[in-house]
Design brief:
581 residues; mainly alpha; two-stranded antiparallel ribbon; two-stranded antiparallel sheet; 8 strands
Length: 581
Amino acid sequence: MHTDSVEEKMSWLANEAEDYWGNPADRAKTGGWVRSALILGIEMVERLATMGIAVNLVTYLNGTMHLPSSSSANIVTDFMGTSFLLCLLGGFLADSYLGRYWTIIIFSAVQAVGAGLLSMSTALPQLCPPPCHHDGNGIQTCQQANRFQMSILYLSLYLMALGTGGLKSSVSGFGSDQFDEKDEKESRQMAFFFSRFFFFISLGTLLAVTILVWIQDKVGRSWGYGICSVAMIFAIIVFLAGRKKYRYRRRLGSPITHILEVVVGAVKKRKMELPQDPSFLYEEAPDSTGIQHTEQFRFLDKAAIATEDDFEAGASKPNPWKLSPVTRIEEIKMMIRLLPIWATTIIFWTVYAQMITFSVEQASTMDRSMGHFQIPAGSLTVFFVAAILITLAIYDRFIIPFWKRWRGKPGFTNLQQMAIGLILSIFGMAAASLMERKRLGVAKSAGGVIPLPISVFYLVPQFFLIGSGEAFIYTGQLDFFITQSPKGMKTMSTGLFLTTLSLGFFVSSFLVSILKSITGSSPGKAWLADNINNGRLDLFYALLTILSVINFVLFIISAIWYKPVKPNEGSQRPQPAEQRC
């Protein structure tokens, strides 16, 4: 009787989760769909704020702060790159010290402060340069923002970046914590949550590039940025309302320490000979849960050579900085195998960066009228978001069923999805180069008339192709980096995926700076002139097309070299709910 009551009580408890007071979480009273809905709100506001600022920032820098086109583009790409790079910092703090709940609260507040400061910097005349002056001969003279004005702007943007990085590193994971994947009903709910999670990301982006951009252009930048700050404060309050009903997971520590232990152990024993039989290497995990030994990167195996010095007196386990088990070493090898694929997907995000920088500048020079309505230049990215949603809908509703009937598989593999995304980005950049050549021809014949007598809808193909590419490569990358990483390093592998976005933006900034120094700034010769009507942006897009083709070849070679990890107890394939960020 007592045993039955204990088993019944255990069935009420969520697996490996605690409630607000540190007790085992009651499944009926904590977590679930209602509580996770509060988390969706804070993620939607994060997307609203980040994208609402990023997609229209280049026009503010160029038109209000009077910065050159290339400098404006670099500021935007550096801002976005830093945002994603700081996901690594947020993930480390969440795993090692703060936990996901407090990481979300702290970094959401940082983002709200950054948006508020940005709103203030656009409202106060002292923090902006004076408007451009036109003399009697029609010559325009503009004064660039001074060092103090730019310092306040940078402080605002990088507070936003810090908040975005910390928040994004934990919000999807904390959402999945609200469900018990070992419970059949909650496992289905978790899959539904993540499909809604992706929808709310897209909804936040859609609201940003339409309503928020329109407010910035027609009402005022300070109003647009102020709305971001107020919305985040409100989202934090709503998020805090569920604190006593959330489920919390214990911190497991950062995998970075485990990686360093293996590397240090291998270096210390670098002169030792490896045994012919790998079964003589040290292992802690039983056969049912360990990872099978592989022959790649055998230098790391030396960390598993056991010696008497590895065990300290009275200790039941060896010093981890001297001796590591085979399973831990194989986990490190799994992460190393991801790196070639990681490196060859960075260029896509360099291409993506052009959609929120130079493509927006292109739009600002073109005819954006639609009847009596003037489309804001930053709102052209709505076609980008639409392409993502349409592509995902077609893939889910048509391609997956067809592929299942034809090949017997539920859709493309993650490597195939990434390959499709890279191909679409190549065509997108080629289309962008051709379109820019046409726009420059119109600009030359128009003699400096703004807006140019060419419709902004000519830019739709490049937005649509690269948006469709993102739908494939984002989901493919995320699935790949989660399913092919060790169970204990999935937060780190997600951070590794997000660094491809970060480095893509930084590569864009690097290329712009290099081309600016090589081609100069004189009209007709400079690829990236201060005024894009006097530059050769089409050649820059053509260069990115060529680089993307070369990168695609390297990606195919890397994909052929890569050996997929077979699902086993040591590296379980996560539930579908874990496969979105």
